[in-house]
Amino acid sequence: MTTIYTFANQKGGVGKTTSAINIAAYLAAREKRVLLVDVDPQANATSSLGIDKTTPVFSIYDAIIDQVPLDQIIMLTKRLHLDLVPSSPALAGAEVELVSVPNRERVLANLLTAVTPRYDYVFIDSPPSLGLLTVNALVAADAVIIPIQCEYLALEGLSQLLQTIQLVQQNLNPRLRIAGMAMTMYDSRTHLAFQVVEQVAKHFPDLIFRTIIPRSVRIAEAPSFGEPLVSFDPKSRGAQAYEALTNELLEREGRRTKDE
Questions:
Q1: CA distance 144 to 34
Q2: Taking residues 38-43, what's their average pLDDT?
Q3: What end-to-end distance do the CA atoms of the chain give, in Å?
Q4: Entry pTM
Q5: d(CA 199, CA 220)
Q6: What span, in angstroms and rounded, lies between the C-alpha atoms of 60 and 87?
Q7: For residue 13, which of 179, 164, 214, 184 has the smallest C-alpha distance?
Q8: Average pLDDT over residues 43-56
Q9: Fewer CB within 10 A of the end CB, N or C, for the chain?
Q10: Which of 44-53, 86-95, 98-107, 116-125 has the highest mean pLDDT?
Q11: Dist. CA 167–CA 204, nearest whole Å
Q12: Closest CA to 183 of 145, 134, 157, 220
Protein backbone atom coordinates (compact mmCIF):
# COMPACT_ATOMS: atom_id res chain seq x y z
CA MET A 1 0.00 0.00 0.00
CA THR A 2 1.50 3.31 -1.10
CA THR A 3 1.40 6.32 1.21
CA ILE A 4 1.55 9.76 -0.42
CA TYR A 5 2.92 12.63 1.66
CA THR A 6 2.84 16.28 0.66
CA PHE A 7 5.29 18.68 2.29
CA ALA A 8 3.53 22.03 2.53
CA ASN A 9 4.07 25.49 3.93
CA GLN A 10 3.30 28.69 2.06
CA LYS A 11 6.26 30.41 3.73
CA GLY A 12 9.50 29.89 1.84
CA GLY A 13 12.80 28.93 3.41
CA VAL A 14 11.38 26.77 6.19
CA GLY A 15 13.19 23.54 5.28
CA LYS A 16 10.35 22.02 3.26
CA THR A 17 12.45 20.74 0.37
CA THR A 18 15.32 19.75 2.67
CA SER A 19 12.93 17.72 4.81
CA ALA A 20 11.32 16.00 1.83
CA ILE A 21 14.67 15.03 0.31
CA ASN A 22 16.29 13.77 3.49
CA ILE A 23 13.35 11.76 4.82
CA ALA A 24 12.95 10.26 1.34
CA ALA A 25 16.67 9.37 1.26
CA TYR A 26 16.57 7.73 4.70
CA LEU A 27 13.55 5.66 3.67
CA ALA A 28 15.37 4.66 0.47
CA ALA A 29 18.38 3.65 2.57
CA ARG A 30 16.02 1.20 4.33
CA GLU A 31 15.25 -0.24 0.88
CA LYS A 32 11.83 1.38 0.70
CA ARG A 33 10.85 2.36 -2.84
CA VAL A 34 10.39 6.14 -2.84
CA LEU A 35 9.26 8.58 -5.54
CA LEU A 36 9.95 12.28 -4.97
CA VAL A 37 7.71 14.57 -7.04
CA ASP A 38 9.02 18.13 -7.38
CA VAL A 39 6.05 20.46 -7.89
CA ASP A 40 7.93 23.67 -7.09
CA PRO A 41 8.85 25.88 -10.09
CA GLN A 42 12.13 26.71 -8.32
CA ALA A 43 13.04 23.02 -8.82
CA ASN A 44 15.13 22.97 -5.65
CA ALA A 45 14.39 19.31 -4.92
CA THR A 46 15.55 18.47 -8.45
CA SER A 47 18.86 20.34 -8.19
CA SER A 48 19.42 19.16 -4.60
CA LEU A 49 19.56 15.60 -5.91
CA GLY A 50 22.28 16.55 -8.37
CA ILE A 51 20.12 17.00 -11.46
CA ASP A 52 20.43 20.18 -13.52
CA LYS A 53 16.87 21.50 -13.89
CA THR A 54 17.55 22.38 -17.56
CA THR A 55 18.64 18.81 -18.41
CA PRO A 56 15.45 16.66 -18.33
CA VAL A 57 13.60 16.38 -21.64
CA PHE A 58 10.31 16.33 -19.74
CA SER A 59 9.34 17.63 -16.31
CA ILE A 60 6.25 17.65 -14.12
CA TYR A 61 5.13 20.67 -16.18
CA ASP A 62 4.77 18.46 -19.27
CA ALA A 63 2.72 15.97 -17.26
CA ILE A 64 0.38 18.58 -15.77
CA ILE A 65 -0.15 20.69 -18.89
CA ASP A 66 0.39 18.26 -21.80
CA GLN A 67 -0.54 15.00 -20.04
CA VAL A 68 2.82 13.37 -20.76
CA PRO A 69 2.72 10.10 -18.74
CA LEU A 70 4.89 10.08 -15.61
CA ASP A 71 6.49 6.89 -16.95
CA GLN A 72 8.29 9.08 -19.49
CA ILE A 73 9.36 11.63 -16.87
CA ILE A 74 10.52 9.63 -13.83
CA MET A 75 14.31 9.73 -13.44
CA LEU A 76 16.67 7.54 -11.45
CA THR A 77 18.80 9.38 -8.88
CA LYS A 78 22.21 8.50 -7.45
CA ARG A 79 20.37 6.97 -4.49
CA LEU A 80 19.20 3.39 -4.97
CA HIS A 81 15.41 3.06 -4.47
CA LEU A 82 14.86 6.84 -4.79
CA ASP A 83 13.32 8.09 -8.05
CA LEU A 84 12.47 11.65 -9.05
CA VAL A 85 9.84 13.47 -11.08
CA PRO A 86 11.82 16.63 -11.86
CA SER A 87 10.48 20.16 -12.00
CA SER A 88 11.47 23.07 -14.23
CA PRO A 89 11.07 26.87 -14.24
CA ALA A 90 8.33 26.43 -16.90
CA LEU A 91 6.06 25.25 -14.10
CA ALA A 92 5.74 28.87 -12.93
CA GLY A 93 3.12 29.45 -15.64
CA ALA A 94 1.18 26.28 -14.92
CA GLU A 95 -1.21 27.85 -12.41
CA VAL A 96 -2.50 30.25 -15.06
CA GLU A 97 -2.75 27.47 -17.65
CA LEU A 98 -4.61 25.20 -15.22
CA VAL A 99 -7.43 27.69 -14.60
CA SER A 100 -9.44 26.53 -17.62
CA VAL A 101 -8.74 22.79 -17.14
CA PRO A 102 -11.71 20.66 -15.95
CA ASN A 103 -11.16 19.21 -12.44
CA ARG A 104 -7.99 21.28 -12.26
CA GLU A 105 -7.45 20.45 -8.57
CA ARG A 106 -7.17 16.72 -9.37
CA VAL A 107 -4.71 16.79 -12.28
CA LEU A 108 -1.72 15.65 -10.19
CA ALA A 109 -3.75 12.98 -8.35
CA ASN A 110 -4.88 11.52 -11.67
CA LEU A 111 -1.32 11.49 -13.04
CA LEU A 112 0.03 9.66 -10.00
CA THR A 113 -2.53 6.87 -10.18
CA ALA A 114 -0.58 5.00 -12.86
CA VAL A 115 2.78 4.93 -11.00
CA THR A 116 2.04 4.85 -7.26
CA PRO A 117 1.63 1.03 -7.03
CA ARG A 118 5.36 0.66 -7.75
CA TYR A 119 6.37 2.64 -4.67
CA ASP A 120 6.07 2.34 -0.91
CA TYR A 121 6.09 6.11 -0.52
CA VAL A 122 5.48 9.12 -2.75
CA PHE A 123 6.72 12.49 -1.47
CA ILE A 124 5.41 15.69 -3.08
CA ASP A 125 7.44 18.86 -2.57
CA SER A 126 4.96 21.71 -3.04
CA PRO A 127 5.76 25.36 -3.80
CA PRO A 128 5.81 28.07 -1.09
CA SER A 129 2.28 29.27 -1.84
CA LEU A 130 -1.34 28.24 -1.41
CA GLY A 131 -2.10 28.33 -5.13
CA LEU A 132 -3.36 25.63 -7.51
CA LEU A 133 -0.12 23.63 -7.48
CA THR A 134 -0.21 23.29 -3.70
CA VAL A 135 -3.92 22.45 -3.79
CA ASN A 136 -3.13 19.74 -6.38
CA ALA A 137 -0.43 18.39 -4.06
CA LEU A 138 -2.87 18.29 -1.11
CA VAL A 139 -5.63 16.64 -3.16
CA ALA A 140 -3.20 13.92 -4.31
CA ALA A 141 -1.93 13.18 -0.78
CA ASP A 142 -2.92 10.84 2.01
CA ALA A 143 -1.16 13.05 4.56
CA VAL A 144 0.64 16.37 4.86
CA ILE A 145 3.86 17.09 6.73
CA ILE A 146 4.26 20.73 7.75
CA PRO A 147 7.84 21.94 8.29
CA ILE A 148 7.91 25.00 10.57
CA GLN A 149 10.97 27.21 10.95
CA CYS A 150 11.75 28.01 14.57
CA GLU A 151 11.16 31.74 14.14
CA TYR A 152 8.22 33.95 15.05
CA LEU A 153 7.15 34.82 11.50
CA ALA A 154 6.81 31.13 10.68
CA LEU A 155 3.84 30.95 13.04
CA GLU A 156 1.93 33.78 11.37
CA GLY A 157 0.94 31.85 8.25
CA LEU A 158 0.27 28.57 10.02
CA SER A 159 -3.42 29.27 10.66
CA GLN A 160 -3.95 30.11 6.98
CA LEU A 161 -2.28 26.86 5.92
CA LEU A 162 -4.40 24.84 8.37
CA GLN A 163 -7.53 26.56 7.05
CA THR A 164 -6.55 25.61 3.48
CA ILE A 165 -5.98 22.00 4.55
CA GLN A 166 -9.39 21.96 6.23
CA LEU A 167 -11.07 23.28 3.06
CA VAL A 168 -9.35 20.59 0.98
CA GLN A 169 -10.50 17.95 3.48
CA GLN A 170 -14.09 19.18 3.35
CA ASN A 171 -14.41 19.71 -0.39
CA LEU A 172 -11.79 17.77 -2.33
CA ASN A 173 -9.92 15.11 -0.35
CA PRO A 174 -11.63 13.77 2.79
CA ARG A 175 -8.85 11.23 3.43
CA LEU A 176 -6.21 13.97 3.87
CA ARG A 177 -4.75 14.18 7.36
CA ILE A 178 -1.86 15.98 9.01
CA ALA A 179 0.95 13.50 9.63
CA GLY A 180 2.86 15.98 11.76
CA MET A 181 4.58 19.32 12.19
CA ALA A 182 8.38 19.27 11.95
CA MET A 183 10.30 22.03 13.70
CA THR A 184 13.29 23.05 11.59
CA MET A 185 16.28 25.42 11.72
CA TYR A 186 16.36 25.34 15.52
CA ASP A 187 19.05 27.57 16.98
CA SER A 188 19.63 26.53 20.58
CA ARG A 189 21.41 29.81 21.30
CA THR A 190 18.21 31.83 21.00
CA HIS A 191 15.35 31.95 23.47
CA LEU A 192 12.97 32.74 20.59
CA ALA A 193 13.52 29.33 18.97
CA PHE A 194 12.62 27.64 22.26
CA GLN A 195 9.49 29.80 22.59
CA VAL A 196 8.31 28.96 19.06
CA VAL A 197 8.67 25.22 19.71
CA GLU A 198 6.86 25.69 23.03
CA GLN A 199 3.96 27.51 21.35
CA VAL A 200 3.51 24.86 18.64
CA ALA A 201 3.71 22.08 21.25
CA LYS A 202 1.12 23.87 23.39
CA HIS A 203 -1.41 24.33 20.56
CA PHE A 204 -0.71 21.11 18.61
CA PRO A 205 0.57 18.56 21.17
CA ASP A 206 -0.54 15.57 19.09
CA LEU A 207 0.89 16.88 15.82
CA ILE A 208 4.37 18.22 16.65
CA PHE A 209 7.22 15.78 16.09
CA ARG A 210 9.52 15.29 19.09
CA THR A 211 12.56 15.40 16.83
CA ILE A 212 13.79 18.95 16.18
CA ILE A 213 15.99 19.73 13.18
CA PRO A 214 18.88 22.04 14.14
CA ARG A 215 20.20 24.95 12.14
CA SER A 216 23.31 23.45 10.56
CA VAL A 217 25.96 24.42 8.03
CA ARG A 218 26.11 20.83 6.77
CA ILE A 219 22.37 20.80 6.06
CA ALA A 220 22.79 24.02 4.07
CA GLU A 221 25.84 22.72 2.17
CA ALA A 222 24.46 19.33 1.07
CA PRO A 223 22.21 20.59 -1.79
CA SER A 224 25.14 22.31 -3.52
CA PHE A 225 26.80 18.88 -3.76
CA GLY A 226 23.60 17.24 -5.04
CA GLU A 227 23.55 14.84 -2.11
CA PRO A 228 21.15 14.09 0.77
CA LEU A 229 22.69 14.06 4.24
CA VAL A 230 22.69 10.25 4.47
CA SER A 231 25.52 10.22 1.90
CA PHE A 232 26.92 13.75 2.25
CA ASP A 233 27.71 13.65 5.98
CA PRO A 234 25.86 10.85 7.80
CA LYS A 235 27.53 11.61 11.14
CA SER A 236 26.57 15.28 11.23
CA ARG A 237 24.00 16.61 13.69
CA GLY A 238 21.61 17.42 10.86
CA ALA A 239 21.85 13.91 9.38
CA GLN A 240 21.24 12.29 12.75
CA ALA A 241 18.23 14.57 13.32
CA TYR A 242 16.67 13.67 9.96
CA GLU A 243 17.29 9.97 10.58
CA ALA A 244 15.54 10.33 13.95
CA LEU A 245 12.67 12.24 12.31
CA THR A 246 12.28 9.47 9.72
CA ASN A 247 12.17 6.87 12.50
CA GLU A 248 9.60 8.93 14.39
CA LEU A 249 7.41 9.27 11.30
CA LEU A 250 7.49 5.49 10.77
CA GLU A 251 6.68 4.86 14.44
CA ARG A 252 3.79 7.31 14.35
CA GLU A 253 2.38 5.84 11.16
CA GLY A 254 2.83 2.31 12.54
CA ARG A 255 0.79 3.18 15.64
CA ARG A 256 -1.89 4.73 13.46
CA THR A 257 -2.14 1.58 11.32
CA LYS A 258 -2.54 -0.57 14.44
CA ASP A 259 -5.28 1.72 15.77
CA GLU A 260 -7.19 1.32 12.54
A1: 16
A2: 94
A3: 15
A4: 0.94
A5: 26
A6: 5
A7: 184
A8: 89
A9: C
A10: 116-125
A11: 19
A12: 145
